[in-house]
UniProtKB/TrEMBL annotation:
Top-level taxonomic group: Bacteria
Keyword Hydrolase: yes
Name this protein carries in UniProt: Alpha/beta hydrolase fold domain-containing protein
Keyword Hydrolase attributed: yes
Species per Swiss-Prot/TrEMBL record: Rhodococcus artemisiae
Domain Alpha/beta hydrolase fold-3, residue spans: 41-240
Gene3D superfamilies found in the cross-reference section: alpha/beta hydrolase
UniProt-recorded Gene Ontology molecular function terms: hydrolase activity
Lineage: Bacteria, Bacillati, Actinomycetota, Actinomycetes, Mycobacteriales
Alphabetical UniProt keywords: Hydrolase
Amino acid sequence: MTDTEPSSTSEHLAVEIETLDSAPVPILRVRPAGARPDAALLHFHGGGYRKGSPRMFADSVARIAAACETQVYAVGYRLSGECAFPGAMDDAVTAYRWLAGMIPGDRVALWGDSAGGGLAAALLLRLRQLEVPGPAGAFLFSPWADLRNTANSFRDNEHTDERFSLEQATEAAAAYLSGHPAVDPMVSPVLGDWAGQPRLILQCSDSEVLRDDTLLLARTAEDAGVDVRVKMHEGVPHIWNLSYPATPASESAVSYMAEQLDELFGSNLRR
C-alpha cells in the first residue's frame, strides 16, 4: 500500500511522493515524471542524527530528483533520541538490502547530506564488512564523517557557518554514540579502510565547519585507490544544495550532481 500525493515543490514539476508502507524501514519514494525505473538514489537526510525526516526534506529532495531525472528513496532511519548507534546504521543496511532486491546495486547510488553523508559513507564500509555487493557510488554533501570533531575547520569557520558548530557537533555526537568510541569507522568513516570502494562524489563549502571532514574523507579514500571527485564551493552555508534552485551555488551543486550521475550510470540514464 502506498500513500500517494503530488509534490508541493512547484506547479510545473511533476513529482510523485509516496510513503512506502511495505518497506522494512520508513521510506519515502520521490519519483519525477520520466525517471527511469531501473536506477535510483538512496537518500539519507542530515540533522546530526537527532532530528530530521524524509518528509521534512521532501520538497528539496523532490526538486533535486527532478533536476537529476532520477527517483529517490529517502530513508527515515532511527534518530538518536529513539535509538543510539547502531540504530541508524542498521536501518541504512536494511534499506539498502531492500532496494537492491528491486534494483541492482550497480544501478543504485547513495546520497547523503551532513550527518546523512557520514551515514552513507559508513554504510559503504559496513556493506563491505557484511560482504554485501555495494552500490555504484555515493554523492556526499558536507559529510559529517569524523565524530571525534577535531577538525581545524570547526574553529577556522566558526564565524562563517551559522548552521552547525563545534558545540552542536559535540552534543549530537554524544547523543548518537552514547558511549560508543568515536574512532570506530562505522561512525567516523574517515578512519576506515577504503580499498575497493566505488566512486565518491563529494561537495562542500570552504566556509563551513565540515569542510575538513569532507577533505579528509576524500584524501583517505583516494589514498586507498578510490575514484574520488571533489567540488569545493566558495562562501556558501552548510547544506546550501538543499536550497536548490534558489541560488547559483545550489544550481551549480545540483548540476554537477546530475552530470556525475549520467557518467556513473551511463549516458542512457535519462530518457
